Amino acid sequence: ALEELEFNAFKRFFVENLGYKGASGINFDITLCFRGIIVDLNTGNNLKIDCDKKVVKAYHGNRQLSNEELQRLYPDPLVFDGSHTDDYWSSSTFFEAGVGPLWIGLVELEDKQEGESNYRKLFADLRKGIEFNFYTFGEGYFFPDITGNPEKYLFKRDDLVQWFKQISAPNAEPKPIRLFLLTNSDTDYAKFLADYCLGADWESLFELILYKGGKPSFWHAESADSFEHVTVSVHDSGFSFQNNGASPLDIAIGKQYRSGNGKLLSDFL
Fold first, then answer.
1. Which run of H or E residues covers position 153?
2. Nearest CA-CA partner of 104 in 63, 49, 55
3. In what order do the strands lie in the sheet with 208-211?
4. In the prediction, which pLDDT does 69 show?
5. Model pTM?
């Protein structure tokens, strides 16, 4: 259900906001929703690589490329570490999984246009859709359906709460486990999800709560931005977050932070 909501949010943006009328005929296909697929922004191809970053399978729209085409186009391993680059974009999170069938359909539409296909413009428009649908909580074509119908997309996980409490208890064997929460979601959406799935007291389960982590690059981007300390205020109309600026991880200050990187987290732990 979540992948279909993502797909429909992007499709609606392309049709209604950008005027891609042909995109209205692109159908959702759950079998085309993958994480880990890489898009070649020069060719529009969807790529699958092995552990040595060698392209082992590729599709252009609905057509699978032959072995001869793979060897000609991708004779060497990709220069790619999992982060988005000027030449490659990776569908690496659940937010992007629903893009798969839409991108395939958009490539098919682009190739039918007169003149040379421009996949970089196509991707630039996709980035606009990401910003429109995911950058501001409560807006776009994605968040309103989630917040209005959480039971359709989310599960309450009391069992997980009890397990967290069990493994982090002072008398846990062989020793208590220190827990932190790291999410790519920003503050408002992450709190909404956790409030629904884990209950109102979920913050007490974790030593640190880290928002907008930017995984997977979080783990190897040592030069990334520093952590930003945030505080949450709960009021009658809901809740709000305040960004208090760059700060080292310090429990004495608070447990909730944004951005940062894996090296700073490892140093703290």
1. helix 150-153
2. 63
3. 180-182, 208-211, 256-259, 227-235, 238-246
4. 96
5. 0.83
